Amino acid sequence: MAGAFRVTPREGPAIEILIVGASARAAAWSALRAGLRPLAADLFADRDLTAIAATRSLERSRYPWSGLDLARAHKKVPALYSGALENHPEFLEALASDRPLWGNSGAVVRAVRDPFRLNALLHEAGLLSPRVAVSREQTDRRVRWLIKPLRSAGGLGVHFDDGRPLRPTHYLQEFIEGPSLGAIFVSRPEDIVFLGASRMLLEPGRFAYRGSVGPLALHGPFLEALLRLGERIARGFGLKGLFGVDCVERDGRPWPVEVNPRYTASVEVLELATGRSALSEHRAAFDPTGRSFQGPPAGMVAKEVLRAGRDFAFPCLDWAPPGPNDAWKVPEVADLPHEGEPFRRGDPVLTVFGEGRLVEEAVTQLEARRSQWAARLGWRLDHDVDQAHLRGPCARHHV
């Protein structure tokens, strides 16, 4: 599958980029694939992150503001933010106060993350959008509704309306039934680039993200509608660089349920599968001097977050972390913790990967690896990837 590390030659020293977020590992590897030198600040400082980047583990009690400590030590270095920081637009403003921000501003993030503004923009454009409400008096009780936090990430805290009092920190969104997918775009002044889409894996019986499989070979009216969505959202909110649109596929049409105005968890799946450097595309939205980088395509890639099956401390494992020359190689495992790190049942522990020419091959390898790692850690797993869920009229699952 993936071959030796390969990039387009670049003159001069690599440009540093500061990556801040709950987990910086995936974005740091993407930075390497774009010919950049990552500096990382996250909550975990996992072994495979510290092997490739100068890394600081952020103080949880002060997160995300503890991320400014590393930022101040590297003034003027461009900054990229990853997961969950869209919930802290005031932090993004502080981060951008003394450096270029290779991402969307706090004001743009506030706007695009407002579900009512997003719904209104799509409705005015004649595009599909689930209904939203702040009270049950505004809802049609003939359909099911979800309760969603106004500030959340990865589907955490989302559940069906159970009739309990609705808190001011939450809102109601019409439930659209169907398989979920994540579409990735790059917004640049001259155009909107569609990088691809992947099928999202969700926790059984919940809406929490647990992984991705891609790329999906989209076609026809579904792809056309998805491209219209991306362009309208980007232009309507003034988005710059990478952003993701989470959709539900119903009746062969995409229903957008959320916009993530940042580097998302599925970007590395598309990068490794296609050999196309997403951060090269992202950088071009902020720094026109950047060059394109390309690696060997893996075909189909699957990833899944493995959660703790019990309370435990991570054991000592004989495992050599990959190095910078492995940047285009699909790893067996990533986000590997340090020895002795404590976990509670249900906590995210590490990420496993699979690859293949077909989606079935990638998922089969993914399941084998997750079983092997669960056995190494002494857990029992009670679910597998539902391969029937991966199919749909919008995609042909081959490369």
Question: Could you write a compact summary of the structure shown?
Answer:
By secondary structure, this protein is an alpha+beta fold. 24% of the residues lie in helices and 26% in strands.
Q: How much of the sequence is in beta strands?
A: 25-35%
Kindly, what is the distance between the CA atoms of the first and last residues, rounded to a whole number of angstroms?
13 Å
Summarize the main sheet.
8 strands, antiparallel
Shape: globular
Strand order of the largest sheet: 14-13-9-10-11-15-19-17
Low-confidence stretches: 1-12, 391-399
Output the helix-strand order. EHEHEHEHHHEEEEEEEEHEEHHEEEEEHE
Report the average pLDDT across residues.
90
Radius of gyration: 20 Å
- Structural classification: alpha+beta
Number of strands: 20
How many helices does DSSP assign? 10
Into which percent range does the helicity of residues fall?
Answer: 10-25%
Characterization of the model:
- The structure is a single chain.
- By secondary structure, the protein is α+β, with helices and mostly antiparallel strands.
- It has ten helices and 20 strands.
- The chain has helices at residues 25-33, 47-50, 67-72, 89-95, 106-112, 115-124, 220-237, 267-274, 278-284, 359-376, and strands spanning 16-20, 37-42, 54-57, 79-81, 132-133, 145-149, 159-160, 170-174, 180-187, 192-202, 209-214, 217-218, 241-250, 253-260, 300-307, 312-313, 333-334, 342-343, 348-356, 395-396.
- The longest helix is centred in the middle third of the chain and has 18 residues, at 220-237.
